[in-house]
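quick q for whoever's on today - can somebody do inverse folding on this one?? i tried earlier but teh output was garbage lol. tokens:
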């Protein structure tokens, strides 16, 4: 990755069982740490409110005005239920949520998916006197501002993206932009619509610092909402030229909370379909971090395991060993730059595990292909702390790429994301921990919502 550095191809290779090891030279790809607006290396004042209506009930919200909304299965957002909210005559339908919110922060990030055929609906933050920042859909346009009565048109509802028909994905960073040299800038909203490789708008929201909670405000007709997250964790990230990424989880200095100390991270990766014009550019992976790696944006204490999605139905498994951000390929090759892949059928299923075996003083990386029965494994010496953070990611390497990003296509899943704690407890990672992030993602990319029952999600690039 990622939040500190992207992973990069490297020189040291460890082979599948029965293969000889081989060492090759390669290019060096290294980026400085990503600058952050969100809090780093501390969970003080951090919070996350996640509302995806998976339970089928109106949980965590209170009706302020109008009739109570209902949770429905249609329309759904990639299969996720939605909240049906209907205004009555000239009276809006308004709901608020404050559960778990910590007020007084200088940075808030949120996302929401909105569906409507007509009318107007808004999502945002409220303060003591009503809304202080809202985004929404009105008369075929994305709108944003301090309140429903003061919104401005940003752009028409996007078409031709990978999001479900009728739905729009909106994310925003809301923060105090004042600095010693510009003390009067105040609070602003950086807005993104169906993509994060370019902001849709930057809007002044001077009262946003007085936020108390989240608000749903349906002004007319019927509007559907879901995939709601409000947090101090930075969801949309705009950093042109860096590695395009998206995924779920926490670590590398961007935190709301630590996981209990654990020694085993595992996941099931399903690669339904992929098509790429160049090897070594697009990868899908999981990450575990020790205490230092979790609480700092760094390559130290950062353990990564994944595959390159290569041309002609091939994958190249690799790992990052915690001391640098270079990919160590399991497969030997004469190619000095990037290791070529091995064939595996579309629809293949891989198991991925990163295990700290404390008694032996090693971390073991293993990928097992359930379709071909191939197993790729490597171990490295390690005597540090247990793991405290985990996240997933789809990652694109722009520095070495020769083709447009929209020519790289994948339909995959990560499921059964789980850890084993030091006490032996097996724990599926919940949606409250697996927070979304999306860095410079083009409109051809989308992740679906994080399904708590499956402890995973679908990843799309088309």
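ok took a stab at it. sequence:
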């Amino acid at each position: 990755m990622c939040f500190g550095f992207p992973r990069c191809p490297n020189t040291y290779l460890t082979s599948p069982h029965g293969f000889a090891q081989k060492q090759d030279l390669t290019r060096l790809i290294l980026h400085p740490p990503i600058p952050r607006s969100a809090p780093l290396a501390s969970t003080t004042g951090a919070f996350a409110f996640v509302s995806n209506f998976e339970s089928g009930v109106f949980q965590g919200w209170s009706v302020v005005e109008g009739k109570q909304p209902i949770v429905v299965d249609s329309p759904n957002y990639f299969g996720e239920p939605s909240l049906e909210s209907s205004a009555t005559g000239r009276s809006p339908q308004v709901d608020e949520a404050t559960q778990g919110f910590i007020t007084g922060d200088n940075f808030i990030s949120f996302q929401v998916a909105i569906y409507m055929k007509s009318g107007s609906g808004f999502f945002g933050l409220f303060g003591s006197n009503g809304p202080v920042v809202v985004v929404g859909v009105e008369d075929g346009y994305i709108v944003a501002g301090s309140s429903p009565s003061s919104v401005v048109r940003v752009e028409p509802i996007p078409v031709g993206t990978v999001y479900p028909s009728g739905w729009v994905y909106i994310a925003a960073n809301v923060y105090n932009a004042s600095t010693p040299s510009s003390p009067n800038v105040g609070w602003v909203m950086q807005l993104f619509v169906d993509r994060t490789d370019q902001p849709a708008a930057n809007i002044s929201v001077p009262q946003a610092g007085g936020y108390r909670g989240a608000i749903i405000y349906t002004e007319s007709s019927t509007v559907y909402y879901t995939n709601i997250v409000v947090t101090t964790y930075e969801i949309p990230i705009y950093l042109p030229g860096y590695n395009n990424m998206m995924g779920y989880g926490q670590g590398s200095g961007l935190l709301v909370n630590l996981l209990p100390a654990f020694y085993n991270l595992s996941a099931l990766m399903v690669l339904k379909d992929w098509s790429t014009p160049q090897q070594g550019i697009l990868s899908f992976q999981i990450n575990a971090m020790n205490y230092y790696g979790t609480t700092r944006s760094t390559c130290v204490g950062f353990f990564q395991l994944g595959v390159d999605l290569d041309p002609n139905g091939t994958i190249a498994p690799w790992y990052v060993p915690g001391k640098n951000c270079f990919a160590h390929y399991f497969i030997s090759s004469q190619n000095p730059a990037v290791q070529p892949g091995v064939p595996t059928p579309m629809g293949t299923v891989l198991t991925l595990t990163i295990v700290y075996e404390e008694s032996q003083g090693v971390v073991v990386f293993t990928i097992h292909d359930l379709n071909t029965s191939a197993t790729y494994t490597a171990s490295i010496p390690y005597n540090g702390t247990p793991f405290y953070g985990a996240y997933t990611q789809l990652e694109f390497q722009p520095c070495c790429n020769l083709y447009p990003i929209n020519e790289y296509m994948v339909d995959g899943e990560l499921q059964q994301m789980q850890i084993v704690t030091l006490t032996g407890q097996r724990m599926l990672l919940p949606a409250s921990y697996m927070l979304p992030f999306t860095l410079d993602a083009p409109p051809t990319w989308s992740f679906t919502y994080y399904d708590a029952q499956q402890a995973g999600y679908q990843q799309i690039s088309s």
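fwiw Residues 1-5, 9-39, 333-337 have pLDDT under 50 and may be disordered. also The chain has two domains: 8-36+235-461, 48-231. so keep that in mind when u check it
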